[in-house]
């Protein structure tokens, strides 16, 4: 076969494979254009996860009529004019290929009006075929509608996930723009219903308050670092937030990126304070002169390359470590009945210097486990011969191994009847059952997880009327991030079946009126977001109820270090 030049339609579709991976890619490219157009109000509307329709409305400066055709032409851009511009990019978009790529794999309508223009104009592109502009009555700004994504490429469309999952990806993109641009208001409408809204504010802290709850904000520590060639601002989380997997955000010159150097620096700053596999919560804004960072190293601009990786690593690590050193976040350990703080533990001189200001983190909370009345627990007065307790404030990572073997083993009190079962707790970690002359030892987290799983399963398989429910004297408000909200909308039937009484409020807030009795002592404000976060990692958690109940049981169960009071 002879070598020949490919037609533009095929070239654009090949380019679209790099730029347009899924609906969220389109949202990202179009919102970047809106931000570059100096908009301060942007609305994103989708249908069926963005597969059927995406609509972006902004109040920016608009596009002149005679440039509408150029807007959908490859490598046509107003952002750069020379090689020197490419070396110091200050805008989010710059390649001039997004609209051309998008319009080659979908139906696209672009309506735009400039401030002083009498009319707006509209151009329609059907899978690469451009129509002539026509007049359009509209306000100043731009409206771009994308529909029938990948209709001409069924193989590409086959690789998209469910509409609900694609909507979650879009929610994440919108959250990133909201965090990066506090001076812009964002509205997200999904299937005709408003899902997320933040009004424009003047500071990062105000925007973080809008995206997350006050409870979370109160567990954040402010980071501030200034250097002639680098500034670092933002927030890192206390250890209480280290289990929230999704909340790690970094922005370089207002661009949402994922950089290994920054991840490694933050983790190193926390040192040994994090539990195994724990992830620190952080939202960091890194600003550096454009010529000191290359943003043109990834097809979708998701990664950057710093001129000096080591300088950025050291700066981020020191900035985070400095703020951690100013507060009391070191876990407290009780050894043989005596509380031991950081000053009592021998450490190397280097470690002592690094963490000299860190002190006790505080007591673990007492929690309850369902059991038989009058069961004895080992207390301080009972400790003899060195039987003390060792507690740590972090929660062990879920293994789900105990409940996976649920068919093979019985609960301890099922083996022996009546008062012969004598449970004891030691080390705030292990549960010992005596059966006459026999002793069985259980991990308290795994045991409670099994109990809760069986109760949840029974509740789910029967009518909700059979579930024992505890009404809350003081109703609890739970604020979710956009991704957790999407997952809740999919899984609300699971919560109802388990006995939760939850009402939707505005701005991604849930009002909890009642919970299953098994969870009446749980920290609901932490439990619900954590469970939704884990459920959200599965494409369709509602299709695997068993797995969903396993996650709920694990996250609801007592943890290693929790003191059981009855």
Automatic annotation (TrEMBL):
PROSITE patterns: DNA_MISMATCH_REPAIR_1. The keyword Metal-binding does not apply. Residues 423-564 form the MutL C-terminal dimerisation domain. GO terms for biological process: mismatch repair. Pfam families: DNA_mis_repair, HATPase_c_3, MutL_C. Residues 352-368 have a biased composition (Polar residues). One of its GO terms (cellular component) is mismatch repair complex. Keywords: DNA damage, DNA repair, Endonuclease, Hydrolase, Nuclease. Residues 352-371 are annotated as: Disordered. The keyword S-adenosyl-L-methionine does not apply. One of its GO terms (molecular function) is ATP hydrolysis activity. InterPro entries: DNA_mismatch_repair_CS, DNA_mismatch_repair_MutL, DNA_mismatch_S5_2-like, HATPase_C_sf, MutL/Mlh/PMS, MutL/Mlh/Pms-like, MutL_C, MutL_C_regsub. Residues 208-325 form the DNA mismatch repair protein S5 domain. Belongs to the DNA mismatch repair MutL/HexB family. NCBIfam families: mutl. This is DNA mismatch repair endonuclease MutL. It comes from candidate division WWE3 bacterium. The lineage of its organism: Bacteria, Katanobacteria.
């Amino acid at each position: 076969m002879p070598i020949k030049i490919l037609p533009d339609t095929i070239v654009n579709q090949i380019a679209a494979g790099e730029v347009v991976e899924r609906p969220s890619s389109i949202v990202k490219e179009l919102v970047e254009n809106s931000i570059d157009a100096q908009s301060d109000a942007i609305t994103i509307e989708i249908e069926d996860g963005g597969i059927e329709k995406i609509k972006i409305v902004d109040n920016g400066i608009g596009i002149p009529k005679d440039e509408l055709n150029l807007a959908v032409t490859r490598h046509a851009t107003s952002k750069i004019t020379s090689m020197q511009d490419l070396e110091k990019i200050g805008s989010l978009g710059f390649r001039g290929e997004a609209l051309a790529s998008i319009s080659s794999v979908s139906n696209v309508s672009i309506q735009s009006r400039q401030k002083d223009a009498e009319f707006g104009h509209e151009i329609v592109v059907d899978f690469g075929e451009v129509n002539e502009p026509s007049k359009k009555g509209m306000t100043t700004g731009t409206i771009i509608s994308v529909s029938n994504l990948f209709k001409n490429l069924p193989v590409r469309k086959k690789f998209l996930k469910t509409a609900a999952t694609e909507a979650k990806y879009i929610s994440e993109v919108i959250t990133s723009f909201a965090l990066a641009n506090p001076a812009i208001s964002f509205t997200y409408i999904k299937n005709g219903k408003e899902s997320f809204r933040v009004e424009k504010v003047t500071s990062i802290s105000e925007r973080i308050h809008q995206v997350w709850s006050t409870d979370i904000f109160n567990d954040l520590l402010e980071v501030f670092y200034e250097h002639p060639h680098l500034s670092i601002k933002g927030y890192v989380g206390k250890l209480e937030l280290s289990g929230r997997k999704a909340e790690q955000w970094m922005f370089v010159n207002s661009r949402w990126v994922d950089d290994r150097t920054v991840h490694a620096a933050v983790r190193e700053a926390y040192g040994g304070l994090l539990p195994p596999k724990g992830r620190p919560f952080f939202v960091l804004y890194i600003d550096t002169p454009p010529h000191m960072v290359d943003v043109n190293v990834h097809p979708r601009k998701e990664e950057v390359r710093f001129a000096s990786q080591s300088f950025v690593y050291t700066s981020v690590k020191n900035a985070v470590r400095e703020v951690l050193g100013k507060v009391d976040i070191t876990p407290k350990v009780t050894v043989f009945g005596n509380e031991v703080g950081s000053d009592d533990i021998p450490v190397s001189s280097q470690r002592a210097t690094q963490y000299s200001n860190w002190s006790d983190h505080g007591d673990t909370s007492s929690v309850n486990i369902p059991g038989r009345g009058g069961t004895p627990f080992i207390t301080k007065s009972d400790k003899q011969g060195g039987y003390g307790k060792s507690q740590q404030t972090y929660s062990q990572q879920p293994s789900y191994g105990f409940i996976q073997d649920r068919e093979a083993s019985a609960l301890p009190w099922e083996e022996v009847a009546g008062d012969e079962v004598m449970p004891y707790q030691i080390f705030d970690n292990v549960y010992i059952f005596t059966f006459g002359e026999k002793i069985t030892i259980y991990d308290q987290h795994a045991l409670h997880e099994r109990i809760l799983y069986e109760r949840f399963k029974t509740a789910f398989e029967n009518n909700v009327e059979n579930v024992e429910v505890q009404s809350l004297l003081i109703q609890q408000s739970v604020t979710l991030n956009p991704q957790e909200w999407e997952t809740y909308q999919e899984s609300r039937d699971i919560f109802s079946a388990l006995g939760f009484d939850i009402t939707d409020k505005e701005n991604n807030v849930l009002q909890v009126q009642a919970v299953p009795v098994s969870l009446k002592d749980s920290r609901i404000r932490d439990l619900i977001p954590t469970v939704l976060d884990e459920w959200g990692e599965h494409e369709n958690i509602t299709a695997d109820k068993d797995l969903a109940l396993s996650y709920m049981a694990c996250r609801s169960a007592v943890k290693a270090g929790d003191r059981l009071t009855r």
